[in-house]
Amino acid sequence: MPAQDSAPARINLPPADLVAYGRQVIATEANGLLALSASLDDRFAEAVSILLSLRGRVVTTGMGKSGYVARKVMATLSSTGLPSVFIHPAEAAHGDLGMLAPGDGLIAFSNSGETSELQPVVAHARKLGVPIIAVAGRAESLLMRQADVGILLPSVGEACPANLAPTTSTAMMMAVGDALALAAMQVRGVSRAGFEELHPGGAIGKRMMRVAAIMHRDAAMPIVTEDCEMRDVIMMMTSRSFGMTGVVDRDGRLVGVITDGDLRRHFDSLIEGKATDMMTPDPKWVSPGCLIEDALTLLNKHKITAMFAVEDDGTDRPVGIVHVHDFLRLGLA
């Protein structure tokens, strides 16, 4: 038997042609999504109403590429507050049908609507009185006829040149799942605080953290009084390494900040000056309860590298300070 050639295929197309083809694929899928958006009707609203009325879980199912979509939709539903589980159709007839119970709802994905492996799941759902939402590409298919609500995918060709590999169809399925999850989330009024409770870890968890979790407190804060000599101001700024110091009045209220830039602008009067002479009044600040993502946006908007956290209770007293490096350590800046 001759040895199989394991050398990688040579690319004969210039980069510009590959880029153009990539854009063509994305444009084809985008056109499918636009057609899907235009085609949504009251059946979509009925599907959302079903999801909101469930006493149990949302069960998603699909075979092949549709199954991967169903898994992702399951994860999105769970992350937005609707408990969900995925049933693999091929495993369903071997005991996994027990995952489906009265009070649940079923979302079944199949582009053809004729996937035979789905039939045991659909039949069991109908036996239990579980409402069925079908997402398919053929209106008269078996799955659509069996469903309580059918969401029809537009008749748009796949991005695959042979019109075979599921591409546009799976993109549309994914979009339907996202739309169902987020529409239900909108109706239920899930707030950012509620979303935070469901995402304590990972990148989303970091974005949902509060300034209080990362700010430097107490003795770590560079703070001087209004009548502080500039020599002591510079020593404070140098020892704390934030590139700035806050200036407070006799009541401890934040009335200004002095930055490295202020020192350069007032270089000629540093010897005899006091903090109140050099400071920039009414500095930007953030609440300790502010999301760190919003705090970073504020830093970028005003093109500053650090700002104080001030309790939003009318006292105007600084309780912490955050620096752009704090966000960099979290991988957010």
Automatic annotation (TrEMBL):
Pfam families: CBS (PF00571), SIS (PF01380)
UniProt cross-references to SMART domains, sorted A to Z: CBS
GO MF annotations, alphabetized: isomerase activity
Name of protein: KpsF/GutQ family sugar-phosphate isomerase
Family annotation (SUPFAM superfamilies): SIS domain
InterPro entries: CBS_dom, CBS_dom_sf, GutQ/KpsF_isomerases, KdsD/KpsF-type, SIS_dom, SIS_dom_sf, SIS_Kpsf
SIS domain ranges (all copies): 48-190
NCBIfam families: kpsF
Residue ranges of domain CBS in the record: 215-276, 279-333
TM spans (from-to): none
Keyword entries, A-Z: CBS domain, Isomerase, Repeat
Family that this chain belongs to: Belongs to the SIS family. GutQ/KpsF subfamily.
